Amino acid sequence: MEYSQLFEKAADHYKKKIPFVLFSLPDEPSLKGAFQKENASYLAENFDEESFVLAPFNLNDVVFQILYKNCDVHEVTTNEIEQHPIDSVSFSENTTEKERYMNMVANAIKKINSEHVHKIVVSREKKLAVQNFNLTTLCTSLFSQYEDAFRYVWYHPDTGIWCGATPELLLQTNQRNFSTMALAGTQRIDDKMMIQWSVKEKLEQQWVTDAIIDCLENKTAVLKVSKTKTHIAGNLAHLKTDISGVLNTNKATLMQLAKALHPTPAICGTPRSVAMQFITQHENYNRSFYAGFLGPVGEMQRHSKLFVNLRCMAINDSEATLYAGGGITIDSNPEAEWDETHNKLQTIAKVLQPLL
Ligand SMILES: C=C(O[C@@H]1C=C(C(=O)O)C=C[C@H]1O)C(=O)O
C-alpha cells in the first residue's frame, strides 16, 4: 500500500463516520494507520493492549482508545512524501481577544506574585473558517511538514477530527526503560546562530525538570538527567532536558505513570494544584484534547510513546479550532505572551493553509 492509498482510506472512513488514526513518529520514515472495522467507542481503562490512546487535558473526561485488534492496521514508508515547509500563514487576530488574553496573563502574574507560585500555563483557542475541506489534502499537508515532530490525524465520531505536530514527549517506555523530557522556553527562530536563553527562560525550564523528577523519583530504580539543550520545533526553539531511566514496574503501570506525570508543568504550571485552579477559573474555554496526551501503546505496556498534544487543532468541514498557550512566570510580559501564542498557532496554521 502507498501513503496516498492510506489517505484515501482515511477519507473514506471519515465519510462513513468510522474511527481511525494515522500517525508518524518523530524522525521515523514511516506512517501507520489503524482503521476500525466498525463504528464503536472504546474508552481506555488500562493501557495493556496494542492500541492508540487519546486523553483529554482534564482526565476526569474520558480517554479514547483505538484498539488494533478491532482494526485494519497498515504501515507505509513516508520516503515518497516530499517535504514542503510552507511560509507563514497570515490570519487576523481579534483585538478584544488580545485584550482579554493579556488581562488573563496580567492576572496570572498577580497570582504568582501574591502566592509564591512559580509558573502558570495559560492558553487560548483560535477559530478559522475552512473553505476547502478535504481530508486527503489535510493529510498530505501535515505529513509533508515537521518530520521531527510526532504527527497525527485522529477521527472518531464522538470527538471529530484532531490533528497536530507536537514536539513534546510525555513518556516513552521500552520494557522497563523509560524516557521523558522537560520542555519550556520559547523563541521564534529568525537566525539559528542567534539563539540565546535568558535567566528567566532557564529558570522556568528548570522548574519543569524538577517537577518531573519529583513525580518519577519514587517510581524509578534509575534516573538520568541530561544537559539542557536547544530543541527546534518548526519555526520555534525551546529549551529541553531529557530524563530517562529504569522503571520500578511493580510500583506503577503505564497508565498510572502517565496520569502521574500529566498535567506536567510545561502545560499546567507549578505548583500543579494552584495552576490548575487558575486555569479552570480564568481560561474561558474547554481545552478538550489540547494539552492532553496521545500516542501508541504496546501489548502489555512494553512499548509506548505518549506525546503531549501541542501544536494541534480540531477541524470539521467548515471550521478549524487551533490551540496554543505559554508558561507565565513573574517576569512575563503580557504582549510578548500574546505574540508567543500567535507564533505557536502558526505551526498548525501552516498545515491548514491549503484548506483555507
Ligand atoms: C503550551 C504550549 O507549549 C508549552 C509551553 C512552552 C513555553 O511556555 O515556553 C514551551 C513548550 C511547551 O512545553 C503550547 O504549545 O501550546
UniProtKB/TrEMBL annotation:
Catalytic activity: chorismate = isochorismate
Domain Chorismate-utilising enzyme C-terminal: 98-344
SUPFAM superfamilies to which the protein is assigned, alphabetical: ADC synthase
Keyword Isomerase: yes
Keyword Isomerase among UniProt keywords: yes
Gene3D superfamilies: Anthranilate synthase
Pfam families documented for this protein: Chorismate_bind
Taxonomic superkingdom: Bacteria
EC number: 5.4.4.2
An annotated Gene Ontology molecular function: isochorismate synthase activity
Keyword list, A-Z: Isomerase
PANTHER family: ISOCHORISMATE SYNTHASE ENTC
Assigned protein family: Belongs to the isochorismate synthase family.
Name listed for the protein in its UniProt record: isochorismate synthase
Organism: Rasiella rasia
